[in-house]
């Protein structure tokens, strides 16, 4: 296989599911590709450049088939569907959200997605500058939520420590005890969308 940044990033995503982000070293990746570690530095300068290339692939996967809102689809529904799609992509890979966090990308798939989002928001009546400042909030919420979700399901725990709700002394903390099951509800799909609707509700008031 010819080594390219794209091929290296794809191999890194494959290895990610086995070793996680902390275990993903250039040595591990070189073994996955059947080369010596120094060879990789001809194509990616350092781990951050590798993470950026991996994030490009995640963004391209999430954006595959993404189109402008249908005629009967609201901008809120469209943004929710886009964020859900993004989260599902990140969840396919162990530590996928950590890979995406802080990554820099000018990948065509990323730029096309941004263009679609800005067009959708401007068509909904948002000023260009407002749209540009508002939509990253959705991205940051998605990545942050998924980082937390993947951390709870990570190998550091034998089981989700919040499974079954938060255990708390009801006499000392009656309000917390009263909603313990809701604070750490295991229905992450529903929780994710609930948070999204809070964000979008705020955007509607801009």
Could you characterize what this model shows?
With 206 residues, the chain is mainly α. The protein has a single domain, classed as Tetracycline Repressor, domain 2. Helix content is 67%, strand content 0%. It is built from 11 helices and no strands. α5 runs antiparallel to α11 and α8 runs antiparallel to α11. The longest helix is centred in the last third of the chain and has 25 residues. The N and C termini lie far apart (51 Å). 24% of the residues are buried.
Key traits:
206 residues, mainly alpha, Tetracycline Repressor, domain 2, 11 helices, 0% strand, flat
Structure described in brief:
It is built from eleven helices and no strands. With 206 residues, it is mostly helical.
> What is the overall pLDDT average?
91
From the 3D structure, determine the CATH topology.
Answer: Tetracycline Repressor, domain 2
The proportion of residues in beta strands is under 5%
Into which percent range does the helicity of residues fall?
55-70%
Q: Total number of β-strand segments?
A: 0
Contiguous low-pLDDT stretches (5 residues minimum) are none
Query: Total helix count?
Result: 11
Would you tell me the structural class of the helices and strands? mainly alpha
Radius of gyration: 20 Å
What secondary-structure arrangement, pairings included, does this model have?
Layout: H1 5-23, H2 26-33, H3 37-40, H4 47-63, H5 75-91, H6 96-100, H7 108-123, H8 128-152, H9 174-178, H10 180-183, H11 188-204
Helix pairs in contact: 1-2, 1-4, 4-5, 4-7, 5-8, 5-11, 7-8, 8-11
């Amino acid at each position: 296989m010819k080594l390219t940044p794209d091929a290296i990033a794809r191999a890194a995503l494959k290895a990610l599911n086995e070793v996680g982000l902390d275990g993903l070293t250039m040595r591990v990746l070189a073994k996955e590709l059947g080369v010596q570690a120094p060879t990789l530095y001809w194509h990616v300068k350092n781990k951050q450049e590798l993470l950026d290339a991996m994030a490009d692939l995640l963004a391209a996967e999430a954006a595959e088939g993404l189109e402008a809102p249908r005629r009967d689809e609201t901008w809120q529904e469209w943004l929710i569907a886009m964020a859900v799609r993004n989260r599902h992509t990140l969840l396919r890979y162990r530590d996928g959200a950590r890979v995406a966090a802080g990554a820099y990308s000018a990948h065509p798939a990323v730029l096309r997605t941004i263009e679609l989002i800005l067009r959708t928001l401007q068509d909904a009546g948002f000023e260009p500058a407002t749209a540009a400042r508002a939509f990253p909030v959705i991205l940051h919420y998605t990545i942050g939520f998924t980082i937390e979700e993947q951390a709870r399901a990570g190998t550091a725990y034998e089981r989700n420590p919040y499974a079954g709700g938060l255990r708390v002394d009801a006499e000392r903390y009656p309000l917390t005890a009263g909603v313990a099951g809701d604070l750490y509800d295991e229905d992450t799909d529903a929780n994710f969308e609930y948070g999204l609707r809070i964000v979008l509700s705020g955007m509607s008031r801009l």
